[in-house]
Write a structure and sequence with these properties.
With about 260 residues, the protein is of the alpha/beta class. It has helices at about 5-15, 30-45, 60-75, 80-90, 105-110, 110-120, 135-140, 160-165, 190-200, 215-225, 230-240, 245-264, and strands spanning about 20-25, 45-50, 95-100, 125-130, 145-150, 150, 170-175, 205-210, 225-230.
Length: about 260
C-alpha cells in the first residue's frame, strides 16, 4: 500500500487530523532539506511536499519563487532532489513524500523514465501543477504507482470537480483561495461548504492549504477537512534564517507547534 494511503488510514483510525508541510527542495541546499525532512518526521508531520525548483513557477507567490531561485542558484537539479530522497529512504525515513512539480520538468525528463526513477527513489506521489487531467500525458501518470494529487480551487465548477476527483489518487488538495501561494492573516469562510461539495464526488481524504500562517489557522482548517497544508510560513522562516543551525531549530520548533495545534 502506498505510504500516503497508509498515513490517512492511520489518521482515520486514530481520529486525528493530518499536517502536511511544504518546503522547496534545495533551499538553502539539499543537505538542509534532508535534515528538515528528518526533523519534520520526528515532530509528527504526516506528509512532506517537496517543491522541485523550476525557473518559471507561475503558481507560486514571491516567497516560494524566491525559494526556488535560491535552490537553482545553489545548483539543485531534479535528479539531485530524487537522489536526496533516495538517500533519506536508505537512512530510514518513512514519511510520505509528494513532489510539487511543474509538468515541464517531467516532460524534459521523459514521462516513463521520470515515473520509474521517482518510484525507485521513494517518492509516493506527485502534484503536477500545470498538467490538466484531460491530457494524454496524465493518463500515463495515472497508470503508474505514483499517486497523482489533484488541485481544486474555490472557483472550480462542480462538473469539473467530479471529473478531477475521478482522476485523483492519494488525496484531494483544496486551494482555499484564488491566486498564488503565500501567507494570509485570515482563512476563507467557505472552506466547510466547499469541502462538503468535494466529498459528494470522492471518498479520498481532503487537504486544505494556500495561506495558512499559524497554528490556530491550521487547526481551524484541519477541523473542516482531513489535513491542513502549510508552506509559505515555513519557507519564509527558511529564507530569513538561511543555512544555519538556528534555522533548523526555529523551523522545526514552528512546525512542531503546528503539529500540536492540529493534533490537539
Amino acid at each position: 500500500m502506498n505510504r500516503i494511503d497508509q498515513t490517512f488510514k492511520r489518521l482515520k483510525r486514530e481520529g486525528k487530523k493530518g499536517l502536511i508541510t511544504y518546503i522547496s527542495a534545495g533551499d538553502p541546499n539539499l543537505a538542509a532539506t534532508a535534515r528538515l525532512a528528518k526533523e519534520f518526521e520526528r515532530v509528527g508531520v504526516d506528509l512532506i511536499e517537496l517543491g522541485v525548483p523550476f525557473s518559471d513557477p507561475l503558481a507560486d507567490g514571491i516567497v516560494n519563487q524566491l525559494a526556488a531561485q535560491r535552490a537553482l542558484e545553489a545548483g539543485v537539479t531534479p535528479r539531485g532532489v530524487l537522489d536526496t530522497i533516495s538517500k533519506l529512504r536508505q537512512e530510514g525515513l518513512a514519511i510520505p513524500i509528494v513532489l510539487y512539480i511543474y509538468y515541464n520538468v517531467i516532460h524534459k525528463w521523459g514521462l516513463e523514465p521520470f515515473a520509474a526513477d521517482a518510484i525507485k527513489a521513494g517518492v509516493d506521489g506527485i502534484l503536477p501543477l500545470d498538467l490538466p487531467p484531460e491530457e494524454k500525458a496524465d493518463q500515463f501518470v495515472m497508470n503508474s504507482a505514483l499517486h497523482t494529487i489533484r488541485l481544486i480551487a474555490p472557483t472550480t465548477p462542480e462538473e469539473r470537480i467530479a471529473r478531477i476527483c475521478k482522476r485523483a489518487k492519494g488525496f484531494i488538495y483544496y486551494v482555499s483561495r484564488e491566486g498564488v501561494t503565500g501567507m494570509q492573516t485570515t482563512t476563507s469562510d467557505t472552506i466547510g461548504s466547499r469541502v462538503a461539495l468535494i466529498r459528494k464526488h470522492t471518498k479520498l481524504p481532503i487537504a486544505v492549504g494556500f495561506g495558512i500562517s499559524d497554528g490556530a489557522q491550521a487547526r481551524s482548517v484541519a477541523d473542516q477537512a482531513d489535513a491542513a497544508v502549510v508552506g509559505s510560513a515555513i519557507v519564509t522562516r527558511i529564507g530569513t534564517l538561511g543555512d544555519s543551525e538556528q534555522m533548523i531549530k526555529e523551523v522545526t520548533g514552528f512546525v512542531e507547534s503546528l503539529v500540536k495545534a492540529v493534533k490537539a
